[in-house]
Each structure stands twice: as structure tokens, then as C-alpha cells.
Design a protein that fits this description.
Helices cover 27% and strands 34% of the residues. The longest helix has 19 residues. Strand 6 and strand 7 form a beta hairpin. The relative contact order is 0.08. The chain is built from eight helices and 20 strands. The protein has three domains: 117 residues, no CATH class; 136 residues, Jelly Rolls; 72 residues, Phage tail protein beta-alpha-beta fold (3-Layer(bab) Sandwich), CATH 3.55.50.30. Helix 2 crosses helix 3. With 338 residues, the protein is an alpha+beta fold. The strands form four sheets. Strands 3, 4, 5, 6, 7, 8, 9, 10, 11, 12, 13, 14 and 15 form a 13-stranded mixed beta sheet that branches. A three-stranded mixed beta sheet has the order 17-20-19, covered by helices on one side.
Length: 338
């Protein structure tokens, strides 16, 4: 019997005990199958209940309980639950639409199913290396400006009921307004939900903080930490900064040029440390820095440059920060003066 058909019946609570046995054997064949079923369950909940956040343990418990009604023998069903309880699986960054043999969605939207259909979709991945920015047009008409050293993943279609995106790095979103189809951006443990708005999300893997800055409209930002979720609502001009190391979220206002200037070719520093300055320049110009004779003197550098060459920026900095520099083949040697 076709496993797609059985999964469809399972999602609609119409699978027989024999079919549940077959489904259990299928998920025990590989961890990929188990992950696929869990993700299908999550998508199904999002579509049927119109809710955009679920505790991951609750999702796995739901699958476990549905797969193992009291009448079924439990002689060999530890694999699924043990797998989903294992450390590291429940990274919210795991893209919820990845399915086995590709990506499948829009499953059985009717409660009474006579025939199960699954539509195969391809995962779209847009990545920029250091030194490159790009503009992406999404299937729903929304626009994304993707910053350097950033990756965007999605697989929704123009008529899907949920617009779900995973982001690593930084991007500015101009979301087409649609009250019936929420726009969800997952960045690590931070989830941003919008209906029609413009906002920026910055969430680099090598940085402890995730920043959501709202330019227009309204968004809901949900943070998942220690199995608990906390939501915040932002109005234009407000931002939320979440520190994953300290587990602390701060709601504040933001400087438009500092947070959003990069979308217009503006690199802006505001009392930035040496590490922050070098990190921005490395990402912007695809270079590596080597520091010489630096004795830990703290930086609080402020400056703004638009569409400038790296040499121009470093020359300007060198006067106030007292260093010489040399640029050679993607490397910058900065030699501080005594």
C-alpha cells in the first residue's frame, strides 16, 4: 500500500490499526522518515488549527499517541519517541517543510478523504557569500533583500495558506499584505509572524544576538527558550533584541540608518567595538583581518559610509584609531601604532 496514502489517512485520523503498523515500520526504517512524519504533523496542525507556534515536544507526543492507540502492541515502538527526544533535534531552525524524497505539502484539505494527493515541491535556497547582496522576489509577490553571508530557504507557492521562510544571517522583508496568509520567518529560536509589513531580521550563527526591527506595519515575535514560548508585538520604529547566551529579550527603539542602512548601500557604525567593526567590514567586503600590535584598547567607533571602497573606509578610520593597514588579495593587515 502506498505510504503517501497511509500518511494521508493518518493525518485525518482515518488509518486502521494495520495501516498504523505499516506506518510504524516505515518510520523505523530511517531517521529521515521519522523526521518527515513529525514535520508533516506540524504543517497539518498549522493549516488545520491556524496556529503558528507549537511546542516541539507536544508535536512529537501527538504523533506518538496517534501512532500507538491502546489497542496496538507497544513491543517495538521506542525508536520514534527516543529519536525525537534526543538532544539537538528540536532546533527550531529545522525547516518544517523538508519531507522525504523532496518537499510535499497541501495534503488532504478535506476532512473526509476518498483519495489522497501529495504535491511535490522543490526547496528553494538562496545564499549570498561575503561581499554579495541580492534582491529576491517570492512566489506571493513579497520582496526580500538578502545581506552578505546569509541564506534564505522556502518552499511555499503563491496560493499556499502559510508563507514560511527560514533565515540564517540578515534580510529585509517587504511583505505583500494578506490577512488570511501569515508570513513566518524562523531565525534560530526566534519566530517573526507578519501579515503585511516591512521588517529586518538579523540572526548570524556566529553572533549571540538576534535582532528584529520593524519599519512598517506590525509583527509578532515569538522566542522559544527552555520549552517555553514568549511573544512580543512590535510597532513601527521598535525592535526586539534577543541574546541567546543570556536568554534575555529587550524591546527598544532603533536607529534607522544603523539597522536598515545596509539595504541602501550604507554601512553605519555607532559606538561599535573593534570586533563589531571588523565583522561588518569582513562580511561587507569579503576580507579577513589580521591585527598587529593591538593591546586591547576599547573602540567606540562611529561613522557612516555609502557605496565606498574598503580602502576609503580604512583610511578614514586610521586617522582616529591610529593604525596603518595593507590590503592584499582578500586579506587586510592592520598594524596599530604605539
Amino acid at each position: 500500500m502506498d505510504i503517501d496514502y497511509i500518511i494521508g489517512l493518518y493525518l485525518n485520523d482515518q488509518a486502521s490499526e494495520d495501516q498504523l503498523e505499516i506506518l510504524n515500520k516505515w518510520i523505523e526504517e530511517s531517521s529521515d522518515n521519522a523526521m518527515a512524519l513529525n514535520k508533516l504533523e506540524k504543517i497539518w496542525l498549522m493549516k488545520s488549527k491556524k496556529s503558528f507556534y507549537f511546542n516541539e515536544n507536544e508535536v512529537s507526543d501527538r504523533v506518538w499517541n496517534r501512532l500507538h492507540p491502546p489497542s496496538l502492541s507497544k513491543r517495538r515502538f521506542l525508536t520514534y519517541k527516543t529519536f525525537f527526544r534526543s538532544a539537538g533535534f528540536f532546533l527550531l531552525a529545522a525547516f518544517s517543510f523538508l519531507l522525504y524524497h523532496g518537499l510535499k505539502s497541501d495534503i488532504l484539505q478535506r476532512q473526509e478523504v476518498t483519495e489522497t494527493k501529495m504535491e511535490v515541491k522543490s526547496l528553494v535556497v538562496k545564499s549570498n557569500p561575503r561581499g554579495v547582496k541580492s534582491t529576491i522576489r517570492l512566489p506571493d509577490g513579497s520582496t526580500v533583500i538578502l545581506n552578505a553571508e546569509s541564506t534564505l530557504r522556502y518552499n511555499f507557492q503563491a496560493n499556499d495558506t502559510i508563507r514560511y521562510i527560514e533565515l540564517e544571517g540578515e534580510a529585509y522583508f517587504k511583505v505583500m499584505k494578506d490577512a488570511n496568509r501569515p508570513f513566518i520567518v524562523q531565525s534560530g529560536s526566534v519566530r517573526t509572524v507578519a501579515l503585511g509589513t516591512e521588517f529586518n531580521v538579523k540572526s548570524y550563527a556566529n553572533e549571540a544576538t538576534t535582532n528584529v526591527s520593524l519599519n512598517q506595519g506590525k509583527v509578532q515575535v515569538t522566542i522559544q527558550a527552555d520549552q517555553e514560548a514568549e511573544s512580543y508585538y512590535l510597532n513601527p520604529g521598535q525592535c526586539l533584541e534577543y541574546d541567546s547566551h543570556e536568554g534575555r529579550a529587550i524591546k527598544n527603539t532603533f536607529d534607522n540608518r544603523v539597522a536598515l542602512g545596509w539595504t541602501d548601500g550604507v554601512i553605519c557604525f555607532k559606538k561599535d567595538s573593534l570586533q563589531q567593526v571588523m565583522s561588518k567590514l569582513s562580511r561587507w567586503y569579503d576580507v579577513n583581518f589580521e591585527l598587529k600590535n593591538y593591546h586591547g584598547t576599547p573602540w567606540k567607533y562611529t561613522g557612516e559610509f555609502q557605496d565606498e571602497y574598503l580602502d576609503v573606509i580604512l583610511k578614514s578610520m586610521s586617522y582616529s584609531q591610529h593604525f596603518d593597514y595593507k590590503i592584499t588579495k582578500g586579506n587586510v593587515i592592520v598594524n596599530f601604532k604605539n
